[in-house]
Structures are given as C-alpha cells and as structure tokens.
Write a structure and sequence with these properties.
heterotrimer; B: mainly alpha; Formate dehydrogenase/DMSO reductase fold; 16 helices; globular; disordered C terminus; C: mainly beta; Immunoglobulin-like; nine-stranded mixed beta sheet; elongated
C-alpha cells in the first residue's frame, strides 16, 4: 500500500484538529477577557445521550461533544441584522405527531447552552374548550411579521430581519422588559441573575445569530438557530424531534422539511387546515400549526417516564380529563 | 423690593421656617434617613446580585417599581394641572397653595423615573436610550415626555418663585447666612419689580400654565400607553389614556390636601391655609372622584359584560376575594366612595376629615396601580404551566419594599428641605389681595 | 417505525444508507487486545454526479459498550486503487455526524481503467480506536437529462445508462426527480425507466425559482447495486421569478425607521414645547439685564 508518511498524517491531523477546535475557541485573549487556560479546550466526558436509530440500534453521543460543535462564532452584529437575502423562513408544527418527548426542549437547551430551567422552547398542554381533549403544543418564538415585541423596543435591540426572523442583540438590550410585557405568547425570558456559563463559553464572541453567551440583565428567546440556517442546516429542535413534528423551510421556496419528509408549505397548510395560534391578535406569526387530528399518540404518553416536577406542571388539565372518564 | 403690609406680616410669620431647623425638624430628617439608607442598601444588593433579588420573574416582569412609577408621576399632577388650571382661571384662593402644589410636581417627577430605572436590567447601557432611540417605542415617548415635563415643572416652580427670591434677598431682617442670601440674589435674577419685569414674569407664567396642562396630559397618556399599546387583558383599553390622566389629577389633589394639612399643622399656618382651601380642594377632589369612578365603572363593566375569555380571567382574579378581591374592594371603596361621601355631606366637610379621605384615597390609588400591573401580567394568553411559584405568582421582596419606602422617604425629605429653602406659601402672591393693599 | 424515527440519527444514516449499493463493509477481524481498543465500523459510499464528478463519503462509528458512537473530527484519507497501487486523492475530517466526504472530478481517474473504479479510505485510528480502511467499487453510469416544453407542459426527459466500456441503457430502474431547495430537495416525481433506460417527468409550473425564475432540477437513481447513486442536475428557467423587493424593510412600527407621521408629530410637538421654554429662558436673561 502506498500510504503517506505516518508523521505527515499526524501533523496534518493535529493541524486539522486545531483548526476545528480553534475556531470554536476563537477567544484569543484579545477578543475577550478569558482565563489563560481557556484556550485549551477540554472536552470533559459529559452525559451520554442514547437514541434509537431507524434500524433499531442504539447510538450514543457524548453531550459535551454535541456542545462544542454548534454555536461557535457567528457573523457580525451588522450582518446579523440584515437577514439572509431572498428568504422568508417559516415553521410548521404538526400537533398530531407530538407526544411531549421534549427532545426539542433539551436539544435547544444544549445547543444554546441554557440551564435546565430556562426554556426558549416549551411544550404546553393545551385544551381548547371543555369538551376538547388536551394536546401537546410545542411553542417556539413565532417570529411574527407584525411583532409586538419589536414595536415597543426603545433601543432597537430586538429587530425583525428581511428573512422574517426576530432576533435580539444582547449587547444593545437595556433590559427594560417591555418586549416581554408586549409579547402575548410569553416567549421571552430574562436573565434575572448572572448566567452560569463556563469560562470556555464566556470567551465566545457574542453574535445575535448564536445568542451565546447569555448576559445578565438582558432578554433572550428562541432564535430559529440562524447560524445553522445560514449554513443550510435545520434548527436544532427540528432535527432533534424523534417524531418529525417540526417542519422548517423557506416560504419563498414554498417548501418545508422535517429532515426526513420534504413537502410544499402551501399544500400542507391547505390540506391539513394549518392555522396560526391566536390569529386574531394580528401579529402574523411565522409559525403554523397543523391541528391535532388523527393523533399518533394518546396524550398521556407525554407524561410517561417524565420526572415528577414535569408531571406537576400539567396536573390540572390531565386530572380533569381523567375524572371525566 | 417694597413689601406691602400683608407681605411683611407673612414674611415675619414664615421667617422661622426658613431660617433654621428646629430640633423636631432635625429629628424628622434623621428618621427619614433610616428608610433611605435601607433603600440604598437594597439598591446595592439589586445592582450586585441582579434582578433575581426582586419578586419579578419571566411572567410578571414588572411589579412594585412600575406601580410606584405611575403613582409618583400621578401625584406630580398636583402642581401641573391644579395650579396650572387655577392660575389660568385666576382663582383667587389658589395663591397660598400653589407653591406646595408646584413643589409636589417637581419632587414627584424627580422620584418617579427612578423607579423605571430600577426596572432596567442594564443600567450601564442607559445611554442606549438616546444613542439608539426608536421613536416607535412608548418608552422613548416617556423619556421625552417626562424630561420635557420635568423641565417645564422646574421652570414653572422657578418662575413663580422669582419674586419670592427677590423678597428673601432684600429682607434684611431675615436671619440667614450670607451664602444663602447670595444664592437668593442669583436666583432672583436682578428682579426689582419694575413694570417690564413684572410683565415679563406674568407673560411667562401664562405661557407656561397654558403649556403645562396639555404637557401633563400627554405625559400620563404616554405612560398609560406603555400598558395600552400591548396586547394584554386589562391593559389594552382605549380609555387608558384619559383614565390614567384623571387618576393622576385625582391622586395629585389628594396628596396636595395631605401636604397642606401637614404644613398647616407643622408650621401653624391656619391663617394662610384656611378651611376654605380644604373645602375648595375637597370639592375638586369629589368631582374628580366622581369622574374617576365613572371611568372605573365603565372600564370594568365593558370588560365584564362582553366576557371575552382572556379579559375574563383577569376580572376573575380581581373579583375573587381569595386572590385580589380585597385589594380591589379597598381600591374602589377607599379610592372612590369614601372621598365622595365625605365631601358630599356638609357635616363631614371639615379639613381633618377631608384629609383622612384624601390619604385613604391616595393609598387606594397606589393599590389600584398595583392591581393594574400585577394581575394582568399573571394572566398570559398561554397557560404558564410552571411549578416554580415565583414564576406564577408575584410577591414583592424586601428589596422592592425597601426601595418603595425609600422613595416615599425621599419625597418627604426633599419636601422638608425645600420648605427650609423657600416659604411653603408664596409671599409675593399677596400683593394683589384686594382691599388689604396699601 | 414509519416516520416515527429519530431524525437526528436519520440525518446520519441517510447518508450511510443512501449509497449502500456500492458500499463495502470495512469491518475487519482484528482481535481485541487488553487495552480495550475499539474497532471502527466504516461505511463507504459514492455518488456519481452529472457524469463527471464523484462524491466519496465515509461514515465512521464505533460500538462502545453496546452502543454506536460517532467518530467526529477525525482525519481520513481517500485513495484511488489501480493495480494495487493506491493514489492519494486527499484527506478530510469527519464532520459532527461522523461523516467525511470528498468531491473528485472524474478526470482525476485514469481513463483506461476505471470500470469498475476502486476506491479506498483509511482511518488512522485514535488512542482508543483502531485504525481501519474500507474499499468501494462501482461501475460508471450516467443520467442524460434534457428539458423541453411539450404542449405547454414542462417536461424533463431522462436517459439512464452505464457509460463504461460500452453504453448500456439501464432498464427497470427507479429514478427520483427533485427540485433543489434550501434545506432539502423537494421530490416532484418518481418512476421506473423503460427498456431503453428512459423516463420523463412533468415539472409543475408553480415552483418558486430565483430572481430569474431559474430552478435546479435533480434526477437521481439511488443505491444501485453496481453503480452506487447516479445523479444529474439541470437548471431551467421554469420557476416563478422571485420578487426581491420584499427584502427592503419599509418604515413601520416594527422596523428601524418610524412612520413619517410619527416623526412629524414628534418634531412639531417637541419644537413647540421646547421653543416656548427657550422663549421663557430668553426672558430670564433679559430680566437680569434690566
């Protein structure tokens, strides 16, 4: 076999490795005040995530490995305010497929380095009327076309881009929380105290497209992962969902995909009677829901194997349902 | 300046008030410093530890601070509208009370905005409000309106005091240190009661009193629009502008009555702040109370009658005695019924009773502001579904209470200091008193 | 499992499974030694595109304590094998999904001997994973794609054939027809080639295109046993042209610039009030001089 010199390969390998990890670190002491040892990226073995692959095999990924690959250095703030030309991003959430697996929530938290109690994306248990049966309702930011939050921002810290995304510049935000009061969907969260971020993370230059790292006294929210989207990759909640609940795409292209199934946006909205939550508020959300008709899972499945704290959240609704039975 | 007889008498009467601090006054100042020091510590805690030390969380993002903000801006109306209106209408009995009213305006307008600053997570970026100002935001409107209003209020107070400063400057028998006399001299702007000077001040006063009224109306409308412009039940109401304006004038009147009562007691000013002043202001308060009651009734009746779901959830909380029912009841009984009844019945129309009614009303108006802010924020469109109690239900922490009482103490302290610097009744205003002139 | 499959892993495994036709399992039979070094699994596939380019892809995983793990950010080297001589094609890193890929032009290969073409990928191993290599071979095939409008129907005509030593139409083979989209390709049709290796698809008229109405159409015969995945693309102005003026953000309550009326009201109000203030201040100044 005609193999390249052993040492050469090793050298190249070291170079390549430094390249990838160096980009992630990208926190030369000039960029931000980091501790000197923070340039040395150490991937401490974290929790292993086990997932079932389609051919029935368990695949495991180290959580810390997942963490260091996404959300590194984003584009500049002025670039982040522009939006990706010619795009109008849109999300379709199929309520019939959701069983509160909460993989979207945990994936979002991982990718944005959020603590467990901070949910940019949450799964609510909804019951439209007394007769209606409860259903799981994943709720992202709706990235409204007439965003009440952006209207009220006094310093242009939260803004609407040409591609439809509503983002926040955490280096501009003064923390008046007016946007939180104005958002009728309780989408936004506030950093009430100093966020617990590792030194490693604190070194990463902030970009409104990555929303990382969090900053005390500022507002943050679901951003549709614009850094991923810019590269043509789907947001993390979309790819994390085991049931293909989330479809994401470009309204201009009229296509949405959940990573597995790619469909025409206008067609699925027409066929499945897609709707926008609280349409009458006139906020024109960019997130559409497909009604929970012909559901795949009984709603109770959403509580199986869940911690007690989580079950507690939905007590009122599911108990009432059980009583009627 | 030549003083007429009445003015000379008045100056004599008020001289001890501005000449020195009595022991009692010093005690009072020390007492006030206690809550202020506590508030200073609370502020330190909040700045170093973040807003996590308050009761505010992701659903209830605003709490006591915003209620205090509305409250203080509200009572500032005492000077702006009451004295502005009375000046324009040239009501004779206004003269002894306008100084108090204008002091309330300036002091309350200084304190109020501090509370909105306490709500801001990044005080280090406050300059962004100017550097990146967005005209579409009601907060920008507020920043502009309140600073304009504060400047107007200070001008108004100053204009009405120029003649007094000239009097203090020229009152040789006034036992004050030299630096104060020089300060009065500077502030008096060489006012010598020349006809042109008289005219200039009178014209300016008229201009300002015309302007201060629409300005005050704009300020509180803009403030109400911070709430009214959102899509929230109990806030998103078209009458919020006039409702807030009326509530502000109403509570301003209450504070004015209370302040008059206190000064009358402390400085023994029965001759100047007479029963007729209390009764006249009481009647204004009653009329405003009626109008305010009408707005309140109209607001809740329409919400309740149309029984829209989201609105209904807030109303349920307000009407439920286990939730906000008692506070709601207090806000409406003490805030509307009591002042109207006390003033309406001639037998009760006495300074002491009117003052008690006014004090209750002012407290009730504060409670009302709290009821506007908190229950609405506790009722988002989507169910909260959070097991953390602090995220579902707002409870103010000691930090917020300390800063609230600290603000009230500051209000009293500034008032006390002001009353040691200038007479609480404008001496120069006695010049045109008919019949008693030289 | 239907669609109730795990998307995160599907992304990984689609790549693995899509080119299975020409893949060779790279598992070797090395014995485990005492340090518990792990043996990697390598799945090596190739996609032939437009008759002139080849995409080599390898997915590397290890089985650790019974579960598969991705081997990410590790270098792999690709080779072209000719008469037991390995010619280096290049080296890349595996990505976050443990997949390394390399595009090569067909001209890279030696003309006289490329049917079937034989490729090799080597992985040097890490501290706890053995090095390994895998080979893949495929015969050359191509899709000829042509577009024409027939009776006002946009029609795509395809001909699938093996293009090695002699041209042989591939009959009864499944072909899928896509339009390229930003995140994923949208399937517009699928069918089976006739005995001459031909098939035609109708392209809908309402597919949004770029500024000029261009759309990129893709025809693909996937996972063929001898040929791997064979793919061809064509760009046609059959889409609905995109109106780019939408990108300009107008004056609005929610945009950066306020509506004109708001600006006007603001300027008028502020100048009236502050104008008065200045008049009054001017009067003060005059007062001092009197």
């Amino acid at each position: 076999m005609n193999q390249p010199d052993e040492t050469e390969i090793n050298e190249r390998r070291d170079f390549l490795k430094t390249g990838v990890l160096g980009a992630l670190a990208a926190c030369g002491s000039a960029v931000c005040s980091c501790k000197s040892d923070s340039r040395q990226i150490q991937i401490e073995p974290g929790k292993k995530i086990k997932l079932l692959s389609p051919d029935g095999e368990l695949v495991e990924v180290d959580e810390s490995e997942l963490r260091h690959i996404h959300k590194t250095v984003g584009v500049s703030t002025s670039e982040a305010r522009q939006g990706i030309p010619g795009k109008k991003f849109v999300m379709v959430i199929d309520l019939a497929k959701c069983k509160n697996a909460r993989k979207c929530v945990t994936a979002c938290q991982k990718m944005h380095h959020l603590p467990e109690e901070k949910e940019w994306l949450s799964v609510k248990l909804m019951q439209d009327n007394e007769q209606g049966s409860p259903y799981w309702f994943p709720k992202t930011c709706f990235h409204c076309d007439d965003p009440p939050c952006v209207k009220v921002c006094p310093v242009d810290a939260t803004f609407k881009r040409s591609d439809g995304l509503v983002l926040i510049d955490n280096e501009r935000c003064i923390g008046c929380k007016f946007c939180m009061a104005a958002c009728p969907y309780s989408t936004r969260v506030f950093n009430w105290d100093e966020p617990k971020v590792s030194d490693k993370l604190a070194c990463i230059p902030y970009s409104p497209e990555t929303s990382v790292p969090s900053k005390v006294g500022t507002v943050e929210k679901c951003d549709f992962c614009p850094d991923m989207v810019r590269e043509g990759k789907l947001p993390d909640c979309v790819t994390a969902c085991p049931n293909g609940v989330f479809y994401f795409g470009d309204e201009v292209e009229d296509v949405v995909t959940n990573g597995d199934e790619t469909i025409r946006f206008s067609q699925i909205i027409a066929e499945r009677a897609g709707y926008r939550y609280a349409e009458d508020l006139g906020t024109k959300p960019r997130v559409y829901y497909l009604p929970p008709r012909d559901r795949i899972f009984p709603v109770e499945r959403g509580l199986e194997d869940k911690p007690e704290e989580l079950k507690e959240r939905f007590k009122g609704i599911l108990d009432a349902g059980a009583d009627e039975k | 300046m030549n003083l007429n007889q009445k003015q000379t008498e008045a100056l004599k009467k008020f001289a001890p008030q501005i000449e020195s601090y009595s022991r009692k006054a010093m005690m009072w100042v020390y007492i006030l410093l206690v809550p202020m020091a506590l508030a200073g510590y609370a502020l330190y805690v909040q700045i170093t530890k973040g807003h996590v030390v308050t009761g505010m969380r992701d659903n209830v993002v605003w709490g006591l601070y915003i209620a205090n903000f509305i409250f203080f801006i509200g009572i500032s109306y005492a000077g702006a509208v009451i004295s502005g209106f009375l000046h324009l209408l040239n009501v004779e009995w206004r003269k002894p009370i306008i100084r108090i009213a204008e002091l309330i305006t300036v002091i309350a307008t200084l304190i109020g905005p501090v509370y909105i600053l306490l709500c801001i997570g990044r005080l280090d970026r406050l300059h962004h409000l100017v550097a990146y100002a967005r005209l579409q935001s009601p907060i920008t409107w507020d920043v502009l309106a309140i600073s304009t209003y504060l400047f107007g209020g200070i001008l108004f107070l100053y204009l009405a005091s120029i003649k007094d400063f000239a009097i203090y400057r020229d009152a040789t028998d006034l036992n004050i240190p030299g630096w104060r006399r020089r300060l009065y001299s500077a502030l008096a702007l060489n006012y010598q009661d020349h006809p042109e000077q008289k005219k200039a001040v009178a014209v300016s006063m008229n201009l300002l009193s015309i302007m201060i009224i629409p300005l005050a109306i704009i300020v509180h409308s803009v403030l109400s629009w911070i709430f009214g412009m959102t899509l929230r039940p109990g806030w998103h109401s078209t009458i919020f502008g006039p409702y807030f304006v009326l509530a502000a004038i109403y509570s301003g009147t209450g504070v004015l009555i209370a302040a008059m009562w206190i000064f009358r007691k402390v400085y023994d000013l029965k001759d100047y702040l007479q029963d007729k002043h209390f009764i006249s202001l009481g009647i204004i308060m009653m009329a405003l109370g009626g109008a305010y009651g009408y707005f309140t009734f109209s607001e809740y009746l329409t919400d309740w009658y149309s029984s829209e779901k989201w609105n209904g959830e807030v109303l349920t909380k307000l009407f439920d005695l286990n939730q906000y029912g008692w506070l709601f009841l207090f806000a409406n009984v003490a805030g509307i019924l009591v002042p109207i009844i006390i003033v309406a019945i001639p037998k009760f129309r006495k300074p002491d009773l009117i003052t008690i009614a006014a004090v209750f009303m002012v407290i009730a108006m504060w409670v009302k502001r709290y009821l506007i802010v908190v229950p609405t924020l506790e009722t988002p469109l989507l169910p909260i579904q959070d097991t953390r109690i602090e995220y579902t239900h707002y409870t103010a922490t000691w930090v917020e209470w300390a800063l609230t009482f600290g603000g009230i103490a500051t209000f009293f302290l500034l008032f006390t200091l002001a009353s040691k610097f200038m007479t609480v009744v404008s001496i120069s205003e006695f010049e045109t008193e008919p019949g008693k002139d030289e | 499992m239907g669609f109730a499959t795990n998307l995160a892993w599907r992304t990984l495994l689609t790549i693995v499974l899509s080119g299975i036709g020409c893949s060779l399992s790279g598992q070797n039979e090395q014995k485990k030694d005492s340090t518990e070094k792990l043996t990697p699994r390598m799945k090596f596939t190739a996609i032939q595109r437009n008759g002139d380019s080849i995409l080599l892809q390898v997915a590397i995983q290890v089985r650790r304590e019974g579960v598969l793990q991705l081997v990410d950010y590790e270098p792999v080297a690709f080779f072209y094998l000719k008469d037991s001589i390995a010619l280096s094609l290049g080296a890349t890193l595996t990505n976050d999904k443990g997949v390394a890929s390399l595009w090569i032009a067909e001209t890279t290969l030696l003309k006289e001997d490329h049917n079937p073409s034989l490729f090799k990928v080597t992985f040097n191993g890490t501290e706890d994973i053995y090095g390994d290599e895998a080979e893949a071979s495929f015969k050359k095939a191509e899709i000829k794609i042509s577009a024409e409008e027939i009776d006002s129907i946009y029609t795509i005509k395809l001909k699938l054939f093996a293009s090695g030593d002699e041209i042989l139409p591939l009959a009864a083979t499944d072909v899928v027809f896509y339009v390229k989209r930003y995140f994923a390709n949208l399937k517009l049709g699928e069918g089976t080639t006739d005995e001459s290796g031909e098939i035609s698809f109708e392209c809908p008229r309402d597919i949004p295109g770029d500024r000029f109405g261009n759309i990129i159409l893709i025809a693909q015969a996937e996972d063929l046993e001898e040929f791997g995945t064979v793919s061809s693309t064509i760009t046609q102005p059959w889409g609905v042209p995109l109106n780019l003026t939408d990108d300009k953000i107008s004056r609005a309550l929610w945009s950066h610039a306020p509506p004109i009326w708001m600006l006007t009201v603001f300027i008028v109000l502020m100048s009236v009030v502050w104008g008065h203030y200045f008049v009054i201040i001017y009067k003060f100044i005059k007062l001092r001089k009197q």
